Amino acid sequence: MSGDKRVQRLIRPAVLSAAAYRVPDAEGLVKLDAMENPYIFPESLRGQWLERLRRVDLNRYPDAAGRRLKDLLRRAFAVPDSAGVLLGNGSDEIIQMICLALARTGAVVMAPEPSFVMYEVCARIAGMEFVGVPLDGHDFSLDLPAMEKALELHRPAVVFLAWPNNPTGTLLPRADLKAVITQSPGIIVVDEAYYAYSGHSCLNDLERHDNLLVLRTLSKLGMAGLRLGFLAGRNCWLEQLEKLRPPYNVGSLTQASAEFFLEHLEVFEDQVKRVCAERDRLTSILAAMPGITVWPSSANFLLFRVADVPASTFFERLKEKGVLIKLLDGVHPALEGCLRVTIGTPEENETFAAAMAAAAGV
Ligand SMILES: *Cc1c(COP(=O)(O)O)cnc(C)c1O
User: Fold this and answer.
1) Dihedral sign (CA 61, 36, 40, 316)
2) Which end of the chain is least crowded, N or C, by CB within 10 Å?
3) What is residue 303's three-state secondary structure?
4) 164 upstream amide cis, omega within 30 of 0
5) Angle at 119 (CA atoms; ends 332, 102), nearest 5 degrees
6) Residue with the nearest Cα to atom 14 of ligand 1?
7) How far apart are CA 336 and CA 165, in angstroms?
8) Spatial distance between the Cα atoms of 320 and 329, rounded to a whole number of angstroms
9) pTM
10) CB 186 within 8 Å of CB 211
């Protein structure tokens, strides 16, 4: 039997039909495609950080429970005492653990759409059914009655809700979020990946709702390379998810680095302030460009639509000018003509704005 036939016979259909996550090559380009914080950790603190890493003995396995790190995360992000914390190699890994734990026959994963692609990817890989509830095509707000109907009809095991949402940047009103939480028959995971930029959290609602879990990551705050995410919630859920966590999923270097960075959180908070100021400035610049529609964002990126030129042409023209953003046209019907740009440094944003003006022919 040829190797290829064996592949077809042995690999699950859900995996065979999936596509691997593709990351475009950004070499030599102004990288504004992946919601990274554009600022680096200051030179003045790098020595101390490396000093900390010198003390890590890599012959030993990492602390499997990540005790120190969890304590620091709790303190840094004000996780309620009654909640448990689960560590992930990025929050992507936690999304996968949640799906694996809930993948009973016929179980449904639900999320508004368009939203973060990993919800659907992880659901399908786990063999679950994914149901997307379309956001309003005009302002990307949640159609609450449609959501309530979908919850009633599909009885999802889990609802993923990115708050604020990626790729739209919109922040569902708290009252609507609460309605979704109370009406969800299963778990609801509120993904607060952009918490640093929105300032809104429902960590304090964990005590009130026994089906709520809150997902956080250090990636968008300025540590995307670390790969560290965490889930906060009731211990009855986390105890089960712990069984799906590979025991040493967060390495010693990540733990030591994260501990050091969390002790200097003010550095990142200052960077976030600068990014938010730039977000507001760039929103005005885009809004003033003819043929461009930009949506207000509570995150560190902007979604915009181009009217006069195909989005893919626009994307290529920006790339020719040395700027990489994200082309969203074709990803979902509601994103026709849309692109997403991550907020960079003032200089990067100037380069982007100039490239935009050139690409639009204004
Ligand atoms: C970027 C992003 C993540 C992934 O974060 P990692 O911790 O880097 O895996 C999760 N959720 C949303 C909504 C995101 O935009």
Assistant:
1) positive
2) N
3) strand
4) yes
5) 145
6) 193
7) 17
8) 19
9) 0.97
10) yes
How many C-alpha atoms does 91 have within 13 Å on its Cβ side? 28
Name the one residue in this structure whose structure tokens are 């309605």. Answer: 179
**Ligand 1 centroid, distance to 360 Cα (angstroms):** 31
- The token duo for 35 is 């919601």
pLDDT of res. 124: 96
Those residues whose C-beta lies under 8 Å from the C-beta of residue 266, and which sit 6 or more positions away, are none
- The average pLDDT across 241-262 equals 97
CB 252 within 8 A of CB 319: no
Give the distance (Å) from ligand 1 centre to CA of residue 271: 19
Q: Provide, rounded to the nearest whole percent, the portion of the chain with pLDDT above 90.
A: 96
Please give the distance, rounded to the nearest whole angstrom, from the Cα atom of residue 94 to the centre of ligand 1.
Answer: 10
pLDDT of 361 > 80? The answer is no
pLDDT for res 308: 85
The binding-site residues of ligand 1, defined as CB within 6 angstroms of any ligand atom, are: 35, 90-92, 116, 162, 166, 191, 193, 217, 219, 224, 229
Distance from Cα 311 to the centre of ligand 1, integer Å:
24
- Nearest residue to 27 via CA among 319, 335, 318: 319
